[in-house]
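hiii so my PI (J.) wants the whole complex modelled not just the main chain, which honestly fair. so below is everything: two entries, each one labled with what it is. i double checked the lines twice but i was tired so who knows lol
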Amino acid sequence: MVETEYSVDIGFIISKAPAESNLVANTLEIARGAVKQGKSIELFLISDGVWLIKKNQKNPAAKIFNEIRKNIKVTASKDHLEGAGIEEKEIVDGVSLTKNTYKSMVELVMENWKKVVSI
Amino acid sequence: MSEKKTLTILLTKAPYVSEAADMALYTALKAKKMGYNVNLFLYLDGVWSAHITQEKEFNNPGVWLKWAVKKGIYVGLCERCSKARDLTDENIVDGLVICGSYKFMDMLKASDKVLTFGG
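here's the output for the full assembly
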């Protein structure tokens, strides 16, 4: 293993929709716990994970996400947002969008995040 | 020259039922292109991507696997999972290795980061 200085303690890759199961909500509960412990957290949203940033949702995952999103970094795949038909005006503020989905994700995982959880 | 970091990707879901196989393969290929060592381990229904050996007029994970092998990505299949699904060296993409889960443990030990797709 290669020694690196990481800027984020834990990164989460979320590829599942918030309402398809409890998995996203459970994962975000872990993220919330980590934030409370003072850890730096980042989410990378890809595939159905991009649904998490749509405004005005009423599901457990979205509730937790809205509690913590001001304290974490969030990046989402622009291609997958477009694939889902979600326009930028429909997403919550504070989210970075990337056109280079896989390049951005690999860079974050390998160079920026100390630990990674992928669902 | 600085040592290369290693990424291991675990795929547990079959192709076409979701985007998991596509995400795993695109991530693997992108990471390799970016200069990282990459391992891909096909586990549970993830082994089915290895069975796609024919041309298709639509998205073809088998082609992506051939490309992964060509680019020097080590692709292993869980031996037990392959046997359960009657997959052998004769009916999977050339260059893939049917190996035990101990090989996956070796991959984990040698990796800087591990991603799971399909969980």
